[in-house]
């Protein structure tokens, strides 16, 4: 048999499952991509069919290896990156799910969230933690996710499951219920039920896992009446999780990494040092800062996460998010403002400014403000398609600037070069304007699929395919570098107008 000279990186995203075969130079030798269909059984509910997801997952692995002209025996390891917060529960003995995957986008727990956020008990806990933070100065007392509930938190959706699905509640009482994010479920299926585990990056992304103490949070579980028996053991991110059953791929493929998608992209970008920053601009936007051994939390704006754990090393990140980036651009394409996304940068650059037109994001349902909606302000008889497109792209850069300023203020670590990825990082207008506004250099890698590369890097380290992170750094390929060209003050009038429009758009 030929030696194992390749690693696989699979990224299970919100809309696609992608798999890439990488050689030792981290060059892609074969790829496959399949669509993930979301189900919408009721308004506000977003689900995934576990069997459909499993089928697509196995399919892309087989296809990518076939495309590369290889066979499974040549694969040294498999790394799996997954969308965060999407979860399922199933029966420990039978392996039968109690429901479909409940997506991170799902807001079925809105009523529960509303009642909790108004409860006296939560207000008392809020005060206690605020006082503890004030007295100690320790950010640990800002980190617990239960200080303010939102519909996107896994914990409240899991609470909804035990209140509304009697079979799950009964199985939990008998210690027969398993909880898992997508990585845990795929690992369970790959090993025919013999391995039940998750990793630190996925666990910390649920909000049920206490990143400071590195354990499932008994306080939160008591508060929401969640049984502590349902959670999987938490393992290192780069780790030998066992092998896929040989019936699935013909040979036992080693599973060498599980990682959450944003953390995977951070690893793929080689953001290994404190102060390294990754900006992913896809459907939404994610700013991640490597904070090393320290956790930085900030109410409502920045969230602390475990980036990865490899042996004794635990790396923490802080994260800020922006909604509706790729969503808004796709909407503009759907209504015919342009034909091809590649045109948008040229359209925006063809005019001096947006002529006072502002795009205000808000395409996603919000429970906090039921009136929140996307809109344009400042339309005039002279407004053209170019002005509308430029206004949409400017809104991305302006929101990048706001979040970057928050990070600078809250995270007391000197920030290094920013590394961007995701579909919108291909837009030179957004990239240049963001660089100008924050007065920082932004690098764009040659490889756009950073989550799958990060998963492959982590798997490669665990399997000995690559020796260390220094070797990975040498494999980085930069396609473009955006350096500040304009003084950020030149954008001041346009940004002030946009901020005014944002204020006017709230609670209209």
From TrEMBL:
Domain Carbohydrate kinase FGGY N-terminal per the UniProt entry, residue ranges: 6-268
Q: What InterPro entries would the database entry show?
A: ATPase_NBD (IPR043129), Carb_kinase_FGGY (IPR000577), Carb_kinase_FGGY_CS (IPR018483), FGGY_C (IPR018485), FGGY_N (IPR018484), GK5 (IPR037444)
The UniProt record lists the EC number as: 2.7.1.30
Family according to the record: Belongs to the FGGY kinase family.
Keywords, ordered alphabetically: ATP-binding, Cytoplasm, Glycerol metabolism, Kinase, Nucleotide-binding, Transferase
Pfam families registered for this protein in UniProt: FGGY_C, FGGY_N
Where in the numbering of this chain does the Carbohydrate kinase FGGY C-terminal domain appear?
278-462
Q: In which pathway does it act?
A: Polyol metabolism; glycerol degradation via glycerol kinase pathway; sn-glycerol 3-phosphate from glycerol: step 1/1
Q: What does this protein do?
A: Skin-specific kinase that plays a key role in glycerol metabolism, catalyzing its phosphorylation to produce sn-glycerol 3-phosphate. Involved in skin-specific regulation of sterol regulatory element-binding protein (SREBP) processing and lipid biosynthesis.
Would you name any one GO CC term? mitochondrion
Please indicate if the UniProt record lists Repeat as a keyword: no
Which of the seven top EC classes does this enzyme belong to?
Answer: transferase
Citing just one GO molecular function, the answer is: glycerol kinase activity
Question: Which GO terms fall under biological process for this protein?
Answer: glycerol catabolic process; glycerol-3-phosphate biosynthetic process; triglyceride metabolic process
Where does this one sit in the cell?
A: Cytoplasm
User: Where does this protein come from, organism-wise?
Assistant: Onychorhynchus coronatus
- This protein is called Glycerol kinase 5
> Predominant location of this chain?
cytoplasm
